[in-house]
Amino acid sequence: MLTLLHTVVLGRPGSGCSTFLKTLANQRGEYHAVEGQVCYDSFTPKEIHDSFRGDVTYCPEDDFHFPTLTVNQTLSFAVRNRTPATRLPGQTREDYVEDTTTMLMKVFGLYRSKNTLVGNVQIQGVSGGERKRVSIAENLGCAGSLGAWDK
Question: 100: exposed, middle or buried (C-beta count within 10 Å: 0-12, 13-18, 19+)?
């Protein structure tokens, strides 16, 4: 049985919401120290970092991408790196990557922009709203077990 747990963290700018989410997502490298104890079921933060890094994801407020990749290339890369060993009967790895990437682009309204560069401040690409949706789709394509989303 699959159980989903959703938690919303609300706060004013500067109140520590991003810090809290980064700590939960085990993104602790920029902090001098983290006091207290965070456990992921029976795993410690060190075990998560060493062995299960891709299972805990953090989607930051700012969108960071390779600006010269297209939407399709960006999402395909994320999906390809986390393709499960067990797939549908007869489904190849490439079929899985293509099917999942297409599904993510359609769900997030990005299919029309699939061949458009993601871009950034210096390189023209998709709009800001589309770039945020690329970030969310990319994070989902990584198929993590625990996700923290900063808005």
Answer: buried
Distance CA 37, CA 46 (A): 12
Rounded to whole angstroms, the Cα distance separating 45 from 22 reads 12
pLDDT tens digits, one per residue of 89-146: 888 999 999 999 999 999 999 999 999 999 998 999 999 999 999 999 998 888 888 8
Does 27 map to a domain? no
Spell out the alpha helix ranges (H) of the chain: 17-24, 45-51, 71-80, 93-107, 128-141
| Residue 89 forms part of a structural domain | yes
- Asked whether residue 57 is assigned to any structural domain, the reply reads no
- Residues 23-58 have pLDDT tens digits of 888 888 888 888 888 888 888 888 888 888 788 888
**How many Å apart are CA 45 and CA 24, to the nearest integer?**
9
- For residue 105, tell me if it sits in a domain: yes
Domain that holds residue 114: 71-143
